[in-house]
Design brief:
Layout lengths: L14 E5 L7 H13 L3 E4 L17 H13 L3 E6 L6 H5 L4 H6 L4 E4 L4 H11 L3 E3 L6 H5 L1 H12 L6 E3 L4 E3 L2 E10 H6 L13 E8 L3 H13 L8 E8 L4 H13 L5 E2 L13 E3 L2 E5 L4 E4 L6
Parallel strand pairs: 1-2, 1-3, 3-4, 4-5, 8-9, 9-10, 10-11
Antiparallel strand pairs: 5-12, 6-14, 7-11, 8-13, 13-14
């Protein structure tokens, strides 16, 4: 895997667009998130269909076409420096193929922030645009609104990324060792769902895999990991850092599944790095070169996430 292009960091006064790529967005949470962004000296603008709800499929924030149009308009607006996803849920995959990737590429490098279902866009941006993206809290997410740790780490990554080049875990090593590679990953069930799609990367040799998930019982995560392993999706990875596993059953039952399924790759595996669906989630850049020290529990970026 090659290092991707790093977008410019943000500065005070930068305009950022908030878009709904997936599930419906509660208006009260959106307004609270906008207040946080304004408190950072940013100028947030809200895409026209952020508060929409699909007439038939109530788990979607409006139609696929409207969500895609909002995203593309925000990204292609020369006054916008970053696009922040309002929330995850489900729906990003449905709109990914409606985007004009040539137009997105021509708009130049910008910052994309999101996680969970937005994993589909992280993969697409890496495969189609070659851009570093940020796996981090979303603008209308509870964690973004209420948790100082999540806010502070995302803010530092956006404005002063050189100050957050080392990310420390709260756990240990499932498999000891050190590894160097280019970060990628996200919600592991979305990585499995991307198999066979136009945006799925097939060669991740030399990559540092960063995975997490929510609401998947140990047997389902076993199935997801087994599918990815059988498909060769993790062939050649240099190392693995694990994030949060909220509502995935007791961790003492899940931990052996992770160790058994991933240990066979013969690479360092470190746990509890505090990214994903957890309180105080940290922001992880995808597409940058980093060193993973499983025993020390650190992920050190060779360069800041943004330039």
């Amino acid at each position: 895997m090659k290092e991707l292009v790093r977008p410019p960091r943000l500065a005070a006064g930068a305009r950022v667009a908030v878009v709904a790529t997936s599930g419906p967005v509660p208006e009260e949470r959106l307004q609270s998130g906008l207040d946080v962004l304004r408190g950072w000296d940013l100028d947030p603008v809200v895409a026209p269909h952020v508060l929409d709800r699909h007439d038939e499929f109530r788990y979607l924030a409006g139609t696929d076409a409207d969500r895609a149009a909002d995203f593309q308009a925000a990204w292609c607006d020369p006054s916008v420096a970053a696009v922040l996803c309002a929330r995850g849920g489900y729906g990003a995959q449905r709109m990914a193929d409606l985007l004009d990737w040539d137009a997105l590429r021509a708009a130049g490098p910008k910052v994309l922030v999101g996680f969970s279902d937005v994993t589909a866009l992280h993969e697409a941006f890496a495969a189609r645009l070659g851009l570093v993206t940020l796996h981090g809290p979303m603008a209308a997410g509870v964690d973004f609104i209420k948790n100082a740790r999540a806010q502070d780490h995302l803010r530092a990554t956006l404005f002063a990324p050189e100050t957050v080049r080392t990310i420390a875990s709260r756990g240990g090593a499932l498999v000891p060792g050190r590894a160097r590679g280019v970060t990628f990953g996200g919600c592991v069930s979305l990585l499995a769902a991307e198999l066979g799609t136009p945006h799925a990367r097939t060669d991740v040799r030399g990559g540092l895999l960063m995975i997490e998930d929510v609401g998947e019982e140990p047997y389902r995560l076993d199935r997801i990991l087994t599918q990815l392993l059988r498909a060769g999706r993790f062939d050649g990875v240099a190392g693995i850092a694990l994030g949060s596993w909220l509502d995935c059953g007791p961790y003492e039952q899940l931990r052996p599944v992770l160790a058994e399924r991933l240990g066979g790759l013969g690479v360092p595996v470190a746990e509890e790095f505090g990214f994903g669906h957890c309180e105080g989630a940290l922001t992880i850049p995808f597409g940058v070169t980093a060193e993973l020290d499983a025993e020390a529990g650190t992920l050190t970026l060779e360069e800041p996430a943004l330039r």
